[in-house]
Structures are given as C-alpha cells and as structure tokens.
Design goal:
The protein is α+β, with helices and mostly antiparallel strands and 176 residues long. It has a single domain, classed as Gcn5-related N-acetyltransferase (GNAT) (Aminopeptidase, 3-Layer(aba) Sandwich). It is 34% helix and 34% strand. Strand 6 and strand 7 form a beta hairpin. It is globular, with a radius of gyration of 15 Å.
C-alpha cells in the first residue's frame, strides 16, 4: 500500500468532499453503462453533501476515509443491523458503499479499507458483513471474492428510475 495513506473515521466536516469524491467514483465505475438522465438522478439523490452528513451520523453507521495527504483516495460506509432476507448470518452489518478512486486503484488501498472495515464491524458486534455489487462489476466481484465474500443471490438496485441487478455477497466474520 502507498505509505502516505491514512485511514480514519469521517466527520460531518468531510461530507462535502465525500460527496464530490463518491459521485466521481460512481461515474468512473458505472457512468458509461448508464443512461445520463438516470445517472444524474442517482447522483443527485445518493451523493449530496447533506445525505453524506446524515449517513455519517446515523445510529450504527461507520464511515471510514482513506486519505492520501488531504485528498480522499477511498472510503467505506457501513451500518450495523441492516439486512435483507438473503442474508441469514447473525448480527449483520451492511457495507453500503466501498469506493477507491481510479488514481489509487491497484495500490492496496481497498485491502486496507476492507481490513479496517472488518475490524470496526467486529468491534461493533457484527458477525456477518454483506454488500451488493452490480452484476457486471467483474473487478469488484473478484476483489470481494478474494476477501472471502460468498455470492448468495440477487437484488435490485435503482439508478434513477432504472432497475439494475446487483449480486448479494456475504462474509462470515467468524471465519474471516
């Protein structure tokens, strides 16, 4: 991993910067495959600074930033106690977002963020970590598989008004 990367909890003061970073990361990863109108709607609702601040302060939420100096290189956001029927493990924790900026991919930041996220989830009492990822996001699915996540089915994720199929992936933290 790049030695200048520091992982720390996000604060509400980070919300505006996270908003910009998250929207760009989503566009970089999924923009070319989505209708511009649906994409714009999703970015407006999912990544506003106000929404980031609200998510950072929600009960059971944990928001970690990977910083390269003052610049956000990646982040993860997860919440304790969230689940769906496909997730049957005890004490679940949902990874709501997990992004590494294009400039920093391949430098070990994702692995470091995942390790920090797992440690924080365990500290909070989680025994099951789960997430969804787009069915066509091969690189992301491969990374999660290397981390020990198992595919348990599908769910729908809305990008604007466009329903898309996401894979549901689960990690048993007692075995990780």
């Amino acid at each position: 991993m790049n030695r200048s990367i520091v992982i720390r909890p996000a604060t509400v003061a980070d919300a505006a910067a996270v908003s910009v970073f998250a929207a760009q990361a989503f566009v970089d990863a999924f923009g070319a495959q989505n209708d511009p109108a649906h994409l714009a709607d999703h970015l407006r609702t999912a990544y506003s600074a106000e929404r980031q601040a609200a998510e950072m302060t929600a009960p059971g939420a944990c928001f970690l930033l990977a910083l390269d100096g003052e610049r956000i290189a990646g982040f993860c956001f997860f919440e304790q106690g969230r689940s769906i029927p496909l997730v049957t493990g005890p004490f679940p924790c949902e990874v709501r977002r997990f992004y590494v900026g294009q400039e920093w991919q391949g430098q070990g930041i994702a692995q470091a963020l995942m390790a920090a996220q797992i440690a924080e989830a365990r500290r909070g009492g989680a025994r099951t970590l789960w997430l969804t990822t787009w069915e066509f996001a091969a690189r992301a699915r491969s990374f999660y598989a290397r981390c020990g996540f198992v595919d348990v089915g599908t769910t729908i994720f809305m990008v604007g008004n466009d329903p898309q199929t996401d894979r549901v992936l689960v990690l048993d933290l007692d075995r990780a």
